[in-house]
Design goal:
This protein is an alpha/beta fold. The chain has helices at 15-26, 52-65, 87-97, 109-112, 121-127, 140-150, 168-173, 175-178; strands at residues 2-8, 32-37, 72-75, 102-108, 130-133, 156-158. Strands 3-2-1-4-5-6 form a 6-stranded parallel sheet, sandwiched between helices.
Length: 183
């Protein structure tokens, strides 16, 4: 079975994330979707996100409220892994846990723009592949082309979904702006 792995801090989980989950839910290529709450991003240094367990529990509750998300499971695998939680380690752990499944990493275009800075990014692109969703003004086609020039065997798919320009950072910075955006 092909499984979409959507990992992030989800601090907070918002309607932009929900739209991606709905798109993955509707995609017949995926038999399951794993929403993985990361304790913190290795790229954000020592800055601590809100308590990871609370964010995980909030994600579980949000998915429960959206009963149409029947393929979505909130997975706590990264909460039990030693820090830092590099994505390739998470994907490898999922592959070891569920040997019959084929995992695809889901990212926003903003992450594709910096993907070559991720640990083991080439291996991720070869072994797991990416499903890239629109984010901001990032030119996904150009970024995909650059990576494919490096290695034509990289697996990169561009998701067909309208852009929802919502940022967890902006929501956290402005509580007033968060009204109506939170799931």
């Amino acid at each position: 079975m092909r499984v979409a792995v959507y990992s992030g801090s989800f601090d907070p989980l918002h309607i932009g994330h929900l739209q991606i989950l709905r798109s993955l839910q509707a995609d017949d290529r995926f038999g399951a979707v794993y929403l993985i709450v990361s304790p913190r991003s290795p790229f954000k240094g020592a800055a601590k996100a809100r308590n990871a367990r609370k964010r995980y529990e909030a994600a579980v509750e949000a998915v429960k409220r959206h009963t149409e998300l029947t393929k979505v499971t909130v997975d706590d695998i990264e909460l039990t892994m030693p820090e830092p939680q590099y994505t390739y380690k998470t994907l490898d752990a999922l592959k070891a846990r569920e040997q019959g499944n084929d995992f695809t990493l889901v990212v926003g275009a903003d992450n594709l723009a910096v993907f070559s800075g991720w640990r083991e990014y080439g291996r991720i692109l070869l072994e797991y592949g990416l499903m890239v969703f629109p984010r901001g003004e990032v030119d996904r086609e150009a970024l995909k082309s650059e990576l494919l020039e490096e290695n034509p065997a990289y697996r990169i798919e561009l998701a067909d979904m309208p852009l929802v320009d919502v940022s967890s950072t902006e929501i956290r910075e402005s509580a007033n702006a968060a009204e109506g955006l939170l799931m």
